[in-house]
Amino acid sequence: MSRVVVAVSVVATLGFTAACGGGDDEKDTEGKPTGATATKAADEGKGGSEGGGGGATSGGGPAPLTEAQLEKAAIVSGDIKNYKVAKTPEGDIPAETVPAEPAACQSVADMFFFTSTPRAELRTARTLTATSDLNATVVSLALLAHDEQSDAEKVMAGLRTASKSCTAFEHTDYKYSGVKALPDPKQGDEAVSYQMKGSIEGTDVPMTFTIVRSGPTLAAFYAMNVLDADKAQVPADVIEAQLTKLAELEKAAG
Predict the structure, then answer these.
(1) Are strands 203-214 and 122-130 parallel, antiparallel or unpaired?
(2) Looking at residue 155, which CATH number applies to its domain?
(3) Residue 132 located in a structural domain
(4) Given CB 3.0 to 4.6 Å as the disulfide criterion, which of 26, 107, 160, 197 pairs with 178?
């Protein structure tokens, strides 16, 4: 079995757990529409969702991206060398958060499945695997479009606090340890980075997370490597490719 197959199998296991424990992506616990459904309804009430965005949120920041814009902003295989890019099934990134123990770790636990509080109005995710069988690093990324810039700022603040106060936690029947805040990257409007190690099916899996805010949109990345802890880093070229494409889309949207 190749290194990439081993790594992807771990990601698939985690995605299956998320799908089983995360709830319905279409409605929240009160029966209200969430995710793409909620945003589509809101856009229809405002006069359409395929337009060019622009303007500003009611909170004074840039307007949130539409569903079409968010999909267009996400990288594809041709945007990055040496990686295959696949769209992550919606079932693998459930909209509902799953409680973590202790609760102080909730923010970092949520980001593993690209959920958050406040919750993003729209999300799209990708999984990147190296084209070389000698590279076992698997990268997951997502773009999270919040309705208000202040909501995205709250998510970032929660991640920054949790990555410094949380050291270990349990989430979706798995245990995580060694949570450690890393220096904030100098990217976007603000960024946060941290690392941890998961104990998954008897295997220790080192992981590194980087989350970058651009207005009301978050670009979230994490990398794992089941064979080489030193390589469990989010590749700089992946972050650069995604942030560049997002910035181009935001500029075009006005």
Answers:
(1) unpaired
(2) 3.40.1000.70
(3) yes
(4) 197
